[in-house]
Amino acid sequence: MYHVKVYITYKPSILDPQGEAVKTALHRLDYQNVETVTVGKYFEIDIKDDGRSIEDEVEKMCDELLANVNMETYRYEIESVTQTAED
Amino acid sequence: MYHVKVYITYKPSILDPQGEAVKTALHRLDYQNVETVTVGKYFEIDIKDDGRSIEDEVEKMCDELLANVNMETYRYEIESVTQTAED
Questions:
Q1: Touching check for A82 and chain B: CB below 8 Å?
Q2: What class of enzyme is it (chains A, B) (predicted)?
Q3: Rounded CA Rg of chain A
Q4: Is B41 within 8 Å of A41 when comparing Cβ atoms?
Q5: Are the C-beta atoms of residues A16 and A39 closer than 8 Å to each other?
Q6: Residue B27 belongs to what H/E stretch?
Q7: Residue B13: helix, strand or coil by DSSP?
Q8: In the 3-class helix/strand/coil scheme, how is chain A assigned residue by residue?
Q9: Is A27 a residue whose pLDDT tops 70?
């Protein structure tokens, strides 16, 4: 079993209105030292090992569904999780 | 300067309809080995060091704005970034 974490954010060239809105809100709450805010999506996915390359599978999942590759970039972390008997 | 990454997900007891929807979509794309999907929010925040405890500040930002603490949990990672002359 693999435990995969996927982080999806806008490409640097793309305006991030949500990030701007959060920054403004934080400044209003008196966190003036906040310089930049980027907002993104985060996925945690458990994937059974079926022998195929987990990196390829995760990248295909991102390209086909999880990320809008025109506007977003993604990175991921893969942890191999040993299944105990009762899993 | 600090570069902070914040990960916000639903508490385990809370139903995650988005996660279920993504899992169903992945199964339809033939990723049958996907067992569970959790969807969350992800923030990257650059914060100027003003001498106050960065951990306290990040936790207050999460409690006051970034997370709905009734339904969500958060974790964060803090990187200290040395500013170069032209920053």
A1: no
A2: ligase
A3: 17
A4: yes
A5: yes
A6: helix B17-28
A7: coil
A8: CEEEEEEEEECCCCCCHHHHHHHHHHHHCCCCCEEEEEEEEEEEEEECCCCCCHHHHHHHHHHHHHCCCCCEEEEEEEEECCCCCCC
A9: yes
Identify the CATH assignment for A2-80 out of 3.40.50.300, 2.60.40.10, 3.50.50.60, 3.30.1280.10.
Answer: 3.30.1280.10
Q: Measure CB to CB from residue B38 to each of A38, A44, A66 and give the nearest one.
A: A44
This model of the complex carries an ipTM of 0.84
3-state secondary structure of B74: strand
Which amino acid is it at B48? K
Contact A47 B33 (CB under 8 A): yes
User: Rounded to a whole number, what is the distance in Å from the CA of B47 to chain A's nearest CA?
Assistant: 4
**Could you report the per-residue pLDDT of B18-70, keeping only the tens digit for each?**
999 999 999 999 999 999 999 999 999 999 999 999 999 999 999 999 999 99
Q: Do B65 and A7 touch (CB under 8 A)?
A: no
Task: Please report residues of B whose CB lies closer than 8 A to that of A8.
Answer: 42
